[in-house]
Structures
1.
Amino acid sequence: MRRVFLIDTDTASDDAVALIMALKSPAVDVAAITVVAGNVGVDQACRNALYTAELCGSSVAVFRGAEAPLARPLEDASWFHGRDGMGDHGYPAPSRRVEPLGAADAMVETAEKFPGLTVVTLGPLTNIALALKRKPDLPRLIGRCVVMGGAPCCEGNVTPAAEFNIWCDPEAARIVFRSGLRMEMVGWQLCRGAAALDLQDIERIKAMGTPLGNFAIECNSTAQAAYLEQTGEHGICLPDPVAMAMALDPTIGTGWSEHYVDIETSGDLTRGMTVVDRLNVAGNARNRRVWNELLRGSPNVKVWWSLDVGKWKAALSVALAEH
Ligand code: BDR
Ligand code: CA
């Protein structure tokens, strides 16, 4: 039986590749795509999601969500993905429009219609936080929530301590992490290094000569240059597709452990930090006051620490292979 996915995304170049993986997978039905401000403004992100769905021949419903984080102005990542989020190649406007319903309501409706569904988040957690405000018992309806976000080793891509999706709206992230959702965290550290597409991988995908393969590489051109400048590593880092690959096939992940994880919302140096209680000290007397809220339940996050790089890249190739 096909599994049901809902994907929440601030659609830019790596989100687009993740959407392709899900929309082309024979194993899942994507019931809805909800869009949030993050990498780019929400309207541009909606256009990018609709355009990508069209390239996949999909008529999946796309819902417009939050225009800004809960308590702050949006600080986007156009410095990484390009002004349009897609490397500024002038892709045409999509022919379809977003649905009239808002993203938070769509999340609640979709979860009620498909209890046990998998939610995959590829952007800031604003939409989910808003959905939780509408329906606090939403976690009961969600079987799995795979989050691309966080930097559990404290190696951030937007500040030394934080990864973009969590940093962008830390107040929303805190609400979601404390909500009782069964979360799986695919942090940024897992997606770089060997997991990034190297120059050979890129040539291999181009050589397939497929429209989706060419699009996946082309729309990430600005991201490729920005990644080199940021890390000194040549290639294309694809955090959202890595998370999607692990949502589609959990056997791509090879190592994980469960922990209490909370989000720093106020630190000057540490805004958006995913604080992982890796050595189980949160419950000690000296920490209990600060960790009180989470300690009421069992560890809230399955943190992925390693993956099978060959298997993830093979899954990507399969998704991009169709002529
Ligand atoms: C995350 O932030 C965005 O730039 C990407 O789309 C990904 O979701 C990586 O930190
Ligand atoms: Ca994203």
2.
Amino acid sequence: MRLLAIESSCDETAVAIIEGAPGAPATLLASKVASQIELHRVYGGVVPELASRNHSLHLRPLVEQALADAHLSLREIDAFAATSGPGLASSLLIGATAAKALAATTRKPFLAINHLEGHLLSPFIDRSGVPPHVALIVSGGHTLLLDVEKPGSYRKLGTTRDDAAGEAFDKVGKMLGLPYPGGPEVEKAAVQGRPDAFDFPRSMMKDRSLDFSFSGLKTAVLYTLTDRNPVDGTPKEDDLPDLCASFQQAVIDVLIHKTLRAATTSNRRTIALSGGVSLNRSLRTAFARATDDAGIELTTADPALCTDNAAMIAFAGLLRHQNGECWPLDSDIDPAMPLVP
Ligand code: ATP
Ligand code: MG
Ligand code: FE
């Protein structure tokens, strides 16, 4: 069975085609992403009107390129899926409407997929199954710890009380005068820095809950900046690598501490990492070491599937389809769609 999926929840337009049968690893036949990062960079963040306009410009050529990559015609697709939330309403509408139109004209089923379920399942695309595990989704808008019994069966263990991990990276990057998005830039600068140069707070480490908080850390970076350069609070050039490395380490320490504790309390032997922040190499290395020490298996998403893409939406759609699910063509998008009710 072959499924074509569209992702357009934010500033990436993406189309993917996946092929799969129950119990066997799925095969990705095509995965195209048109990133709008350059377009939004001059504004220092995503401009919703620009994003939706560009989704409508890029979508049709991307669908055609994906079909060409997969050597398939539209008639050979058995189902269509689209991200239906959470995300920007005007962006979600473009992809969801296109997928419904394709499903209607070909008389094939339509599947409305939660963007976060896409991230969550992305580490397992090339596996033959999804084992029970603890999942950490660290993206631009979310920091979510979940207990996963099986696909579709999720229990929320913890989430952020303020900023998401990726959002903290982006805001600190902005403070430090780095281009948008801050995450990859902070990682680059951190390579030359000392992670113990500044003693930044690890919020809620001793808290019994599995929730996170990153706004105190962000403020600590700001205070350090104004302290060291009272004139205008811009970082002294020599400070930049140390600030980035110390901030990054504080985020990593908290994420590892809570995720390992979640695995213990949920009695799971596998941890899966997904979302844009899981691209961070220091984070991957630190997680690999910590899980190894704890005798826990670590599964990460392929680097190409950490930030937004349609392959993860196609995979989530495939599993939902195999589960006999299908959505009516008048089903709506939901910009605040929860993963766990
Ligand atoms: P959500 O999925 O919550 O709606 P999103 O789709 O914007 O948010 P992703 O595309 O998964 O999020 O990830 C983007 C985020 O990942 C940005 O905040 C970006 O800064 C961060 N990021 C990307 N690469 C890195 C990196 N190497 N280190 C740290 N953060 C990174
Ligand atoms: Mg993005
Ligand atoms: Fe995302």
